[in-house]
Amino acid sequence: MPVSKKRKKKKSRSSGRASGSYRSQAPAVPAPVQGDREVAQAFQSFTAYRDRVNTQRVARAEAIATELVADLAREVAERPGMIVTDALCERLGTLLDEDQQSGPDERIGPHHLAEAMPAAAEAAVTAALTATTGQAEAWTAPWRVLTALTSVLPYPLPEVVSETIIRLYELPTGRALPAAPAGPEMVGPALWTSDRYGSRFAVTAAISAADEPMRWYLWDIDACGHEAFTVHSGYYPSSEAALAAWQTGVGQTASAGTVLTPADDRWLLAPLLPAEMGVIRPGGEGVDQLAEYHRSKRLAEVVGQATPRPDARPETDRTTATAAVEFAAWLRARIPEQHEPPEDLSELVAELVDSWNLNGIDAVFATCSPHRVALCVLHMRNYYLDEDAEQLVALLPEWTRWLAERNATAPELADRCLPYAHGHPHPQVGADDYKIDYLARVIE
Known about the structure:
Blueprint: H1 33-78, H2 84-99, H3 110-130, H4 140-148, H5 157-169, E1 185-186, E2 191-194, E3 200-208, E4 215-222, E5 229-236, H6 239-250, H7 252-255, E6 261-262, H8 266-272, H9 287-291, H10 293-306, H11 320-334, H12 345-356, H13 370-383, H14 386-407, H15 411-421
Antiparallel strand pairs: 1-3, 2-3, 2-6, 3-4, 4-5
Helix pairs in contact: 1-2, 1-3, 1-4, 3-4, 3-5, 11-12, 12-14, 13-14, 13-15, 14-15
C-alpha cells in the first residue's frame, strides 16, 4: 500500500509544500529534557506494543498453518490424484479472505501464513515418520503437501523448504522418504501482449511441475498505477484460453486485435511481473487474488530466471524531462496570441509529468488510458493542496490530447480518456483519493 502523504503544494511554487514549510520561519528549539524522556518512553511503549502484536500474529499464523496442513493431508489421503498446489492455493485464498474480517491487531498478512507453512508441514511429516502405530506410509500425504510448497511459495521460502527436506532425510526414519520433486519450470518462451492503450499486459508461460499437467499460467498486469499490479492470475489449459480470459478482463474495445508474441523485452518484463515484498502490499485483494497471491510471485520468479536479460538497457525516446519541455512548448503554441501563458507554466507541467510517471516504467510512460487518467487525478488530489491539484487537473485534457497525438492513438480510444481528464471519477477505481482500488480488473 503506498504511504499516504500529507497534501502538498508543488515543490518550487512560492507558497511551498504544505507540510514542512513552517520550518523556515523560526530556528529549531531543543526540546526539554523531560520532553525527551516522555518521547523515549512513548517510543518504547509503541515498540513493545508492535512486538507484542507481531508475536500474536505469528502464533496465530502458526496455528492456522498447522490446521491447514492437517486438512490438506486428509484431502490428499482421500483423493490421491488431486493437484495439491491448486488445493493449497484455494485454501490459502479462503483463509486469508476470511481473516480480513478479524480485528486490526489479530489480522495476519499473506506473508505470515506463508512463513508458517514449511514448519507446519515439517512437523506433520515428522509426526508421521515417527509414529509407532498407524499406516506404514502415513508420511505420504503430508510429504506431498510439503513438497507442493516449493511450487507455490516465493523466495526465500523454497530454500526454507529445501532445508526442511534435508532435516527430514537426516531423521532415523528419513530413509523412507523419496527424492524431492523438482520445482516448477518454464517450458518454451513466455508470451505476452498489451491492450490498445499500451498499459495493460497479458503475460503467459507454459509451466511444468511435478504431479501436475503442463499448463499455461496467466498474469493480467495493470501498469496504470504507481506500480504494475497483477489484477488477475491463474492457470489455463492453453495459451489461447489464457489470452481469451485476459481479453474478457480487459474488455473488447481495449483488447481488440491483440495476439500473443514472445516476450522479448526483459527490461520491461521484469518490472511488470509481481515480486514478493513481505509486509508491503496494496491491500483490498479479493479471494481469487489472495488464492494466487503467492503462486503468482513464485511462477514469476521461474519466468524471470528463464528469460535472458540483454546486456544493455534499451534507450527510451520519452523521458520526464523531455516530455515536460515538449508538452510545455506544445501548450504555448496553442495559447491565443492575445493571452499570455502563466508564468509558472513550466513548473506546472513538470509537476504534471512527475505525477504521471509514478511507476517509473519508461516503456509505459507515454501511454494513456481512461483509468490511468482517473488514477492520476486521484493522486493529484491526494498529494497536493486543493488549489494546486485543480490547476494540475485542469492541464490533463490537453495532456491526453498531446499524448494521443504523439502516440497516434485511435480517436475512439483518445476520446474515452477525456471525461476522466475533466475529473469525472472512474466507476471501477473509486472516487475517494484516500481509498483507491488499484487491484480492480478494469474493463476499458
